[in-house]
Amino acid sequence: MKAIRRFTVRPVLPEALHPLSDLARNLRWSWHAETRDLFRSVDPERWAACGGDPVRLLGSVPAGRLVELTQDSGFLSRLAVVRDDLREYVSGDRWYQEQTSDLPTAIAYFSPEFGITAALPQYSGGLGILAGDHLKAASDLGAPLIGVGLLYRHGYFRQSLSREGWQQEHYPVLDPNELPVVPLSEGDGTPAQVSLALPGGRALRARIWLAQVGRVPLLMLDSDVEENGAGERGVTDRLYGGGSEHRLLQEMLLGIGGVRAVRTYCRLTGHPEPEVFHTNEGHAGFLGLERIAELIDEGLDFEAALEAVRAGTVFTTHTPVPAGIDRFDREVVARHFGADAELPRIDVQRVLALGMETYPGGEPNLFNMAVMGLRLGQRANGVSLLHGQVSREMFSGLWPGFDPEEVPITSVTNGVHAPTWVAPEVFRLGARQVGERRTEDALTVGGSDRWDAVAEIADQEIWDLRRVLREQLVLEVRDRLRASWRQRGAGTAELGWIDGVLDPDVLTIGFARRVPSYKRLTLMLRDRDRLMDLLLHPERPVQIVVAGKAHPADDGGKRLIQELVRFADDPRVRHRIVFLPDYGMGMAQKLYPGCDIWLNNPLRPLEACGTSGMKAALNGCLNLSVLDGWWDEWFQPDFGWAIPTADGTATDEDRRDELEAGALYDLLEQRVAPRFYERGQEGLPDRWIEMVRRTLTHLGPKVLAGRMVREYVERLYAPAAQAHRALTARAAHELAAWKSRVRAAWPRITVDHVEASSATATAELGTTLSLRVRVGLGDLAPDDVEVQAVAGRVDGDDRIADAVCVPLKPVNGPDLEGRWSYEGPLSLDRTGSFGYTVRILPSHRLLASGAEMGLVAVPLEELAEAAGLLMR
């Protein structure tokens, strides 16, 4: 019979063991080895059966075992040490508290998914893992973040394979009472909730759950509450599930409901209100609208409120292609805002204007969440240097008249949370070398450019460590492969061959990620004969472990998985290549350390960052990757190999795959495998070990999430907080009125005349030209603008590269025609073809950059030619 109601019955912990409950509810255990070791000692078999989840463990330990532990003085002593360590961790001063600059009192960080631990499966891929690592690193640094997300009742799907190798999806129900979260409650004990207005007088209500991530609270909204109708209860059913309107409701709940949840949390706990709001991708962009509505309620008009909100908002884009951005039909968005729905104080047309693609090439009837994020955030960034460049080009239509390199989108390269992803064996090796505390600080706070202590580790120790990690992976793979084949319907008698799958002494390659087409899961299958030769080489064999999920609606991705699974099922090679279903954090934490090579072969430049190779590198794994994302930025031959790309415009997709697959095979055959198997005088692969050593020494400090969060604090959060404080109600009114006046006057801004002290077409290096410019400012004054000379080398099309901007100064008042004269020196500091032009930009002390408003005035083409603005 089926139960009509379900309860979670927990044991009552004896008083002496009460700290176990606090330790289980703070997710620091997921990256703190001593805490996990303590829970493991409670009941090692149950710990393994629970998948290393302390909440599930404490829910299943027999009362008799708990009584035993109260009599175990050794256990109680360890419990006290771990309890005190957590108290010091969450309350003591850390990096953030030691800074002398004026930093934000709090930062709210919004993301649609968070990958904290496999015990809280609220993530699908890199975006969520990155968000989880961001919170953990912020906690380690003492940065006062508040995380905001949704609590999905089914999370992301679990993956298995049919007998034919086709991906199967399963959506297990997650009971919040069995997860490491607690409900946020009002003072009278009732559950804290937020509510959104829906069309037709309906409401969308959500309960607030709290997950404690070290020092960082993570607020998660759950719409599965009794007060909601059936449709509303299902809003937080699945991560990235449902149709367009379903996604819109999720994103409204995340952004608008998320701000309301933050306000509720701060009211109930006394936590400082955030000065900075950071939206991780466009999904949470509606948070800006809610904050505008708050300020309108305080007496600001829309334009002033918009300026105040922009000042304190940071927007991070992770998407290198327009197709990856959430876009909604304008009518769907309009229906959910305004007088009969949410945010009635804001005119619907103003809401739509923030997200419409009103630039050349845009779709006029689509509401673009990334465009809204950029319009509502004064500071924006991509997630690697290359991705920053791609983003500036992709969104350049929002800043017409500016070259892509001047588009105000910077970059902060992603990092990974080392304590989560570094194998315990790697940590212990570092601790033996420099001590446990110094190793922990190096992996969390970072700050050094090199880990020089790695140079002192003996070659034999490094090689023995790599062999231990590889052997652990082999055993893990066999267990998972056996379970997968049983799910596919195989009987025990069919599976004896699995005991011979993989070899702990063979060069091991890992490839694990989501399976959209651009990541090219099956590029390795392009020439199957060559791949078979690599796998079965008599002297230098390789073995490959592959994992990944395709989106449930992506049949193309599922076909790629099936193609690879069918190859891996071939009895000739199945001991050398495996596909493991249900890729997640638990699998990843075994996979990264155990591989010798981490393979990544996306279509460049479609990988925004790609952090899996970073996690592998921290464990001494070498990267073999296309120069995309972070690898384009930090690749050196010391750290691995770069797969050449065939990305010329004359190369079609099929030919490109053929060329790049050939380059991949060549590298493996001629350089990678020979170096792994080559032995020096001591019988060790000396050159390989040296690459591992250099990877750890030089690359390790770069890829840390601690480094990433410190960059966010120093380059984005601190300036945003300062701008937020400067935008008082009065200043916001002033800035909004000034912008309105400048926009109205801008059509009459002109560059009328340009002359230089030298009229020749050549000049000597070091020469200084005197520029004199005559401009028309219409109704504006010199204080409203900056007149600049822009100079640099020019190409064959007279485009200025590596431009230097030199401000010019007004030399007298307006003449009889109302024109102003500006002058200034221009130094010819480089040889070769050189050119300059003149432009006028808006200028105000509260602008973050001259390009912020997207307004620029330049000379007419005929004026530029007459002025002789090129010197060759």
From TrEMBL:
GO terms for biological process: carbohydrate metabolic process. It catalyses: [(1->4)-alpha-D-glucosyl](n) + phosphate = [(1->4)-alpha-D-glucosyl](n-1) + alpha-D-glucose 1-phosphate. Gene3D superfamilies: Glycogen Phosphorylase B (3.40.50.2000). It is an enzyme of class 2 (transferase). It comes from the Bacteria. GO terms for molecular function: glycogen phosphorylase activity; pyridoxal phosphate binding. Residues 13-120 form the DUF3417 domain. The modification N6-(pyridoxal phosphate)lysine is found at K615. It holds the Pfam family Phosphorylase. Keywords: Allosteric enzyme, Carbohydrate metabolism, Glycosyltransferase, Pyridoxal phosphate, Transferase. Its EC number is 2.4.1.1. Its cofactor is pyridoxal 5'-phosphate. InterPro entries: Agluc_phsphrylas, Glyco_trans_35, Glycogen/Maltodextrin_Phosph, Glycogen_phosphorylase_DUF3417, Pyridoxal_P_attach_site. Belongs to the glycogen phosphorylase family. Phosphorylase is an important allosteric enzyme in carbohydrate metabolism. Enzymes from different sources differ in their regulatory mechanisms and in their natural substrates. However, all known phosphorylases share catalytic and structural properties. This is glycogen phosphorylase. It comes from Streptomyces triticiradicis.
